[in-house]
Amino acid sequence: IAPGFIETEMTLGMRPEALDKMTAGIPLKRMGKPEEIAHSAAYIFENDYYTGRILEMDGGLRI
Prior knowledge:
- The chain has 3 helices and 2 strands.
- It has one domain (2-57).
- The chain is elongated.
- The model has no long low-confidence stretch (mean pLDDT 94).
- It has 63 residues and is mostly helical.
């Protein structure tokens, strides 16, 4: 799992202007939530057909 910017204690402690700069480049215009990353991990474990590729969880940042 390759996460993008995720709402954590570390990122929530950042200055608002820094957070705005980070999210400006994300097509979904928000940071990810920890539960979205957890859901991705569950998907990998539950899906027998998943073949081990990188799962980018970044709101479209790398598009």
